[in-house]
Amino acid sequence: MQVLADTSVWVGHFKAFNPHLKKLIERDCVLTHPLILGELACGTPPQRVQTLAAMGLLQKAQQASLQETLDLIERKGLFGQGCGIVDMLLLASTLITPNAQMWTYDNRLANLARQLNILYQP
To answer: In a 3-state reduction of DSSP, which class is residue 59?
Structure first.
């Protein structure tokens, strides 16, 4: 199993060390995505250069295209539920990545991931 840890999980980890995330990293089970790296780069992660470089070494989730994501939104009725396009792209990417689940602390995104049967719950 692979786990796409979204931005909220990383921000939480930066604020208060998360031993479960560390264990997943040590097992090489954590996936990243360019949009997550981009969101974190817009903020102030600790030891910025080293942290972003280390995250860039993690396995990458497959990237869903915008069209695949728009199709998913329509097909599954994911619109109007408080999630934006970055969240939707992460959901779609998780769905097309074999054996992947999404870990998030965002309640709205978690509800959609649960609905799609890809929510990771440590």
So the answer is: strand
